[in-house]
Write a structure and sequence with these properties.
The chain has one helix and six strands. It is 14% helix and 39% strand. It has a six-stranded antiparallel beta sheet with strand order 1-6-5-4-3-2. It has one domain.
Length: 111
């Protein structure tokens, strides 16, 4: 079983909401912006970006898996299985985060 990573309250979750997440191992609390939710293969996943990364053009988002739900409280964990993580990350990229670079300059390339 994966170690509990953080707790959130389901009532506080909606797109764009700033959500403080507390790492249960270190006790450190970091503010994240909720980006999206995915339900895949019987599991629920949330994507967040750290608030202090919002201005960074190369921001990295975090994907956490719902480990358990107790009323409105949700326990989140890291995804430990590499294949599962890749599958979920690909889903988020395809559904929510894929940006097409329409400004890509292709002039000067050999045909």
């Amino acid at each position: 079983m994966a170690e509990e990573k953080s707790k959130i309250n389901e009532d506080d979750m909606y797109r764009g909401q700033i959500q403080p997440l507390t790492d249960m191992e270190t006790g450190e609390t970091v503010n994240f912006k909720f980006l999206a939710q995915a339900d895949l293969d019987g599991n629920t996943y949330y994507a967040f970006v750290p608030v202090d990364e919002l201005e960074n053009e190369e921001q990295q988002y975090v994907i956490l898996k719902v480990a358990s739900v107790d009323g409105d409280d949700i326990d989140l964990v890291d995804i430990e299985d590499d294949e599962e993580f890749e599958r979920v990350a690909d889903f988020f990229e395809d559904e929510y985060f894929s940006d097409i670079d329409y400004d890509e300059d292709t002039e000067g390339e050999d045909a």
